Structures are given as structure tokens and as C-alpha cells.
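Lab notebook, bench 4. We co-purified these components, and the gel suggests they stay together. Before we commit to crystallization screens, I want a quick structural picture of the whole thing.
Request: model the full complex, all chains together.
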Amino acid sequence: MQLIQLLIDGIASGCIYGLVALGFVLIYKATETINFAQGDILMLGAFVAYSLIGILGMDYLTGFALTVLIIAVFGFFLDAVVVRQIIGQPAFATVMLTIGLGFIFRGFASIYWGTDIFSFSTPFSGKITEFNGLIISYVNLSIIVGTAVLMSALYFFFTFSKIGVAMRASSENQLAAYYMGIPVKFIFSLIWSISAGVAAVAGVLLAPITLVDTSISLIGLKAFAAAVLGGFGSIPGAIVGGIIIGIVEQLCGTYENYLFEGVREISAYLVLILTLIIYPRGLFSDKAEVKKV
Amino acid sequence: MRFIFKTKYSQDINIAKHNGDRFWYSLLILIMVALPLVLNDFYLGEISYICILSIAGIGLMILSGYTGLASLGHAAFLGVGAYTHAFLLTNGIPFYASIPIVIVVSFLVGAAIGIPILRLTGMYLAIATLALGFIAEHVFIKWEHFTGGNRGLPVPQPEFLGMSFYDSVFFYYVCLVFLIAAMFAAINILRSPTGRAFVAIRDSEIAAQSLGVNLGLYKALSFAISGAFTGLAGALLAHYIGYLAPDIFNIFLSLTLLLLIVVGGMGSLHGTVFGAIFVGFLPQLIAICRDYLPSSIGSQPGLEPMLFGLILVFFILYEPLGIYGRWMKIKLFFELFPTYKRQTFKKQKVFTKSDRV
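Here is the predicted assembly.
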């Protein structure tokens, strides 16, 4: 029973990793760049939600939707104005650029909102439900349900909508997509905006657990482990990878005595390194093989 | 404009290309040696720190700037060097014996890290080194027997050549000597076949492989050499800060090193020194900025990371060649005056290179 309890907690935190990883994967699939600022966008999402719900006193759902919208528009212009300029430069430049952007966001957040820890009330805070002796908090439930809803929405979007199909086409082959009359640059910015929106969703869902401060951007780094484990470039892989990381982390935390002290904090990174060394393709990769020496 | 008349093939790999180089660099060294006569202890300390940063920068430059392998966890090597050095000194090993051991240990650690992650390229490598940096930081916290954990580890300041490390003039000379030695070693590594192989790997792995460069070997070697330089810098850093705590060697330090080489100019050893000067004076620069901003913004702790990020972004977008690149442009402008063309350094438009198969 304790194990199932752990699994549920693990899945809930794993969903957050999965959502952030999803942001990486969407951008990577389309533009072959990795957005190291994803965790910082998540943090901005949490702060904007705090402003709207906590300070302006908006209704939770309205505030949630507005936050996602604001961050999505922000993501769109982030690509259109800044990131697009360095397309075609070596991978290193993008890495450095997005790291720099992450620092700017974090600095901005701590200047504008301050370095205190904030919280805002949600309909889920503090409520729990019992089921056969399992204790499930509403917050965890909201995260799992939210992820499931978002995933199905994205699935339908990418499968049936015209823009979704255009996005898949552009990530498949940019040049061919151009020839077919797809506005690839616009589509890329749109992908950035979706990815930022997903990060904002994760940020708002996470806010009741970790509270809102600038350090939650570190989640972005753990989400790398999720993305790599799922095989960079696979959308379901990102979520599955995230859930595995979440569960591993919970298990390592509980059984710390049998392993070594402090294993919980680095378990995600250990999984990441092991995946890269042993099976760099990841679990769900659609690629033939990661380029090898 | 200076034209070098070449009469021997060996001129191509001369350290000093012409007499002007010899004159200016000798003058620079003379000035550096004479500095303690004019500067007080505070500035000598700052310049010692810049020397240490430059040595670490050389390490990262060899890896990232010359071999093209990104490392986001280089603070780990600084930590390895610093902790090894402090541990050895605490156990009574003299300074002159400790430094070579530190260099060998960091070299081996570099190789040990380099070998398993050889297969990774580009972003995967960046992510892996990032994770390794975190793991290393964690090891420094938890391995209390060796590092003292969160309590920290005082660094003994032994006598060396009859002088104490507390003496800032002496410490300045130690740092300067090590910087010059490291620079000399780096120049020589880079003009040897090993260094040429590094550059070949950076420019095109496939081409390098076709020319018989053993990619795995040279990438591991690059990691190891880079680790050795950075470990040496770590040992000196241990003396500079005097008391080691694990949270010094965090991701922010790794990113500061990256900022150093990007701002200085990727792929040039001059760049490491320019970058180190920039990074060394950044806190003062920020302090000056604080004075000019309204106090509501100026007193915020978030200003530092924000400026850090802004500088990084501006350099990546507008001056990818860094300070050294800008210096070259200015120099060329005056050499070619009035026929200088902006197009000389124009960024070539390229298509996104795909590493998908």
C-alpha cells in the first residue's frame, strides 16, 4: 500500500517533469534547438498566475487561462524577436543564448516580484481524498488530470487541426514544408508559444506544492532527464520519461537508507547520465540512432 | 598592413609571428612583473583572481573553443582541483608536490568523465555535463571525509620558498607564473599535432575522421587536458578564497566560466584573458550600475543574474567573436584604412545543420 502511495506521488511530480520535457521536445523536434530557459518560463508562468490570482484576486480558472495565454504570446515573440536570429549557428550558440535568456527571466522575476516565497489559493489547496486507505491530495489529482487533459488536447491538435499538421510537416522537413506553402517561420514561433504555454500550465499546477519563488526554475534541469529518457523528439516519451523520473525520485527518497545518503536530489541526473551512456536513443525515439562517433 | 615574408615552413608554427609580437608581449610581461610596485594589495588580489580565472578559462577554451565540446559543468573540475589541493596540504604534502598531483588527478578525472560521454555530441553533451556538474556538487557536499561537507574545509596556507601565501605580492607572483606557464603550455599544445586534431574535430568531425584523427581518443584527451588546466586553477582558487564550501562550485560558476570564454572570444587564447578581465571586474561594473539606477531597482539582488544574462545574450547575438573578435576588427580597420569593408567579418548565412539521420 505504501508503494502505491509512493507511485501516486511520483506520478504527480513526474507529470510536471513530463510537461516541461514536452516543451523541450516540441521545440527540439521543430527547430533542433534546446530551450534551456524552459524552467524559467515555467517560473514566469507561476509568477504571472500569482499576480493574477493572488494579487488581483481573479477566479482560479480565469487566472489560469489568462496566464497560459500571456506566457504563450510571450513565447511567440521570444522566438520571433530573439531566438530566430541565430538559426543556423552552431548548437553551442543556442545553448548559451537560452541560458542567458533564462538568467534574464530569473533576474527580472526577482526584481519585479521580489525574492520572497509566495503562494496563492487554489480550489485544491489542502484538500485530500481517501480511497482504500490511500491518501490522495487534490493538488496531485489536479496535476495528473491537468496533464491528461493537456496531452489529449495536444494529441487532437497535432492529429486533426490544419496548423497541427503543418507543424508536424515543418518539423519533419523544413524545406519541403516551405515548398508546400507552409509559413515555416510563423509555425516555429507558434511552436515556441505552445511550448511556453505548456510550461506555464506546469508552473500553475505546480504552484500549490512548491509555492512560487525563483528557485522553481531548477525543475527545468531535472526535466532534461525526462526528455532524454523518453528519447528527445517523442511527445509521449516526454510524459512517460517524466513519470519514470518522478517515481524513481520518490522511491530513492523513501529507500535512501538502502542506497546512499542524498540519492534523492541527484537521482534524476543519475538516470540522465545512465540513459545517455547506456541507451542514448531513449525509450520512445523515432530516430534511427543518435549520432555516434 | 604588415606582410610577413616567409622563407621557412617552420615559420608557420612560430609562437611569435614577427618582432612586433615579441616586443609587445615582452613589454606586457615586464609590466605585469612591475605591477606590485604601483598597485596596492586590493588590486593585486583582484589581478591574482583574474589570473586564476584565465587559467580556468584556458582549460574551458581548449575544450569548448578549440575542440567544440560544450561543457556546462566545468566548476566540477575547479572543485576537484581545489579540494584535492586542500586535502593534500592538510595532510602535510608540501605545495610544490601538491600542485603536480592536483594536475594529474584532474587530468585523470577529466579522462574518466570524457570517456563515457564521448559518444554524445552537441546538446546531449551539454546536458550530460550539466548533470555531471550537479552530481559533482552533490558529491562535494556528501563526501565529508574528504571535503568537510557543508561545514567547509579550511585551506592551509603553507610556506613556499620561504614566503607565505598571505602575502598578496607573493601570491600575485605565484598566480602570474602559473598563468604564463599555462599559457605557454596551451600555445604549445595547440600548435602540436594534438591541437591541430582538436581544431579539426571542432570544424568537422567527419573530415577529421577521414584524415585519420581518432575521434574518441582526442575527445577524451581534450577533456583530460581541459580538466588538468581547470584543476590547476582550482588549486590556486583554493588559496585565494581560503575556505572551501561546496556551494562555491555550483552551476553559476560553470556558467560564469562559459560567459568568460564567450565574452572573451571563442577559439582564441587572447580571449580567455580578455574574458577573465571582464568577468573579474563584472562585480565592480554591477556595483557602478547600481549607483546609477534608481535605488528601487539598484538595490535588488536580481540585478546581477539579469545583467549576466543580458551580456551573454548581447554577445551571442551581436558579437559572437567576443572581445578578441572586436579587437581584431578594430585592428584591421586601422591597418586597412581607408579600405576596410564591413563584409570582411560578415556572418555567413547558413542553413540549420541537422544531426538527424
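The mean pLDDT of chain B is 83. Worth comparing against the SEC data before the next meeting. The longest strand of chain B covers residues 153-154.
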